[in-house]
Amino acid sequence: MIIPTHFKKLTLPLLLSVALAGCSGGSDFGSGTSGGSKQEEVTYADVASLEVFASSGVLLSKGDNAVTISVVAKDKNNNVISKIPVTFAVDNSGTIIAASGNDTAATKTAILSSGVNTHKRTLTVTVSAGKKTQIVTVQVDDTKIIDKEDNSDIKSLDVSVTANKLYSLGSNEVTVSVIAKNENNSVVPDAQITFSVDNDALILPDAGNATAAIKTAKLSSGLGHPEARTLTVTVKSGAFVKILKVDIINGKDPVVEKESKVVALEISASSRQLFSAGIKPVIISAIAKDQNNNTLSDAIITFKVNNNATITPDAGNASAVVKTASITPGLNHPENRKLDIEVTAGSLVKNLQVDIVGTTVVLEGADSIAINNPTEYTIKLQDSEKKSLAFHSVEVTSSAGSEIIPVNSYTTNAVGEMSFMVNAAADGEDTITVISLGAAAQKKVSVSGNDFSLNSASKEVKIGTPETISMKWTKDGVSQANKIIQLSATRGVLNPLINIETNTDGEATFTIESQTAGGTVITATTENGLTATLEREFIATTPHYINTQASPSVIAPHGVSNLIAKVRDINDNPVKNMHIVFNLEDRVNGTLSNSLAVTDSLGRANITYTASDVSSAKNGVNIKTYVQEDTTINDQINLTVGGDALRIVLGHNEKIAADDIFYKKTYGVIVTDSAGNPVKDQEIAFTITPTDYYKGFMVPLLDKNPNVTVVDGVIITDNNSGHWVRKLEAACKSEDLDNDGNLDEGEDDNNNGKLEPSHDATVTTSGKTDEEGKLTIQIIYPQSSALWSRQLLTSTVVVEGTEFVEHAEFDLSILASAVKDLDVAPPNQFSPYGITADCSNPE
């Protein structure tokens, strides 16, 4: 029989039976007695599901047309039931007539028409078999709908099957797949495809075929027809017909037969502990045996694991006696936890547990604190290989109810660390507990009646000027005299340098001075571990120059440009708290968000310029800036508003060329106008900046099937048995956050005194397009830098004051010939930025 691919399929749990009495247009066929057979012994209770298909979702009310409703009843094992009575009913004055041959057909059908009512409406068709009911809806339309029934745009059909043989017993199926293509060899997703098969077999199209690029249908041998035979499957679309053959083999699928022989299953694990870094997986082994305890190498064994872990069966399991699978913690799942592993062979299931271990949380801080004196603690989160775990949540609690600051939002930073403050309100004992990723750490803290504190007159300290810090220590109201206090600071020089001694009032003073601007944390520690901290900021106060930048400098009408003025002193320290005046001069009615801004700790003052709907001349917007405290320190920038639209396309191939110790890579640029026409003689400017850098080293990777020889007990592989690959230890963001080339405060993440990565690559600075709007440029970089940084290529075109920008991002690649010989080290053997798995470590 033939079922069109655009049938709507619905298979759902059925909730109620539908009586046909009183249903308009109702029709039934068969009965509980007619056509029955005791040999089949089919009852209503055997029906577990109904699959209902409509040949179309739309029924035209005018003209001679109808929709075919097809039904397949299945039992709980998904086998088709042919000898079961099925009834059809329709509402809203529709008409439905069951086919005459439905009594014994595997697929029951009925013809649906709109009846004498030609108005638009929805018809609900109810199909029932026993206690199972299913519905499908069809829209009645009173307008003429032209469908692509002729499939005139189809020029070819690609047809394939998942297997060319089918076993008659069991639930074995073959999937038939069809792709319709037009004259341009493009897929036609709305093509109408029909499937048919001879020799009493059954073919059912997939419900989603209507819009699917690949149309599929399930082929089975048909109920009650186990005999061996050859099936002819016909696939048709318009004038195109494809025919293929599938052989029916009488019997069960040998795979199923193999599974039925399994009577025993033995499993084991190489370890019951899996380390959270995932470097060494746990191997699960399984053996299937028959009733005589013989191993079954052809048994199918499956592996399963929970809790976000990953399990990978070995590629050689198909013919192996011992089937194995590797378990790893899963991508970005380093948490300590229990894994349940399930191994199945046939109907047998065995389970075992493996613990993921090794993730640790370390809590660092003082063992003794004073009441009402917030004290800092730091945690470090690491996996089993001591690799930092970034951006994971942490739970912090105090057994004594001490205040934890901040009160929420505990998450490790990019280097797997997090800091918080503990402020105790009462003396006694406290236990601070931190929990993350299934790991926990505790620290017992002694809270004393000590009042131990640091203070100074100014929160902001002028650079080059000593600031006096006072300290006072009392315990239960008694001054702690003649006590030695250790001193330290993250920035600045202390005087005395190492320690001080309290006087009879439990007080002491010292000074701190710095020649550079930035924050500092001053720490005082007693001999018994009591600590007090004080945060201060050193600031530069004497401006020397101002530098103003606009991003972007060319904007479209109604566009916005961000204006940043940076103020520094004679030693290039950022100057804080300077009042910067912004003054606008233009003829296009643009606006500034503010006329005055104050510099922050980095010496920056920010406002925005917003353009009107009028274009300006080139550099027609002038913005002057000056320091209000010293108007002789000033700067100015120019902006442009407007221009015609251009498009820039950047492209490249995968080829690079070696040139002495360098590599050369070619990029192509095409510039077109808004209509797609090439723009010739257009000047294009190029820049290249690093966005990321990588740490690691190159390692040999052997091929799966290397040529191997054994000489005097030593295994030797040939020179072509593998190649070099990058072993990535850490991926780090560029430290130069504002891409200004200056080592600014807070940018030196690994504290090595320089910005990383270096500018490894150079690019042609500018050029002009040819008559076809094309231009080629070269990027040059050292071979030793290949694979160790990511670059951003920027092309910029300015036309009548309007700036057009296009970007391309890529890793510096390496020549294939440089990594194919394991006897020769590649030119980029070690990353120039280190090999440790930590961006904060320059090693």
UniProtKB/TrEMBL annotation:
Q: Per UniProt, which keywords does this protein have?
A: Signal
Give every Big-1 domain span: 155-245, 450-536, 544-637
- Identify the domain of life: Bacteria
Region (Disordered) residue spans: 736-769
Which portions of the chain have biased composition (kind: Acidic residues)?
A: 737-750
Cleaved signal peptide residues: 1-21
Q: Which family does it belong to?
A: Belongs to the intimin/invasin family.
Q: What is this protein called?
A: Big-1 domain-containing protein
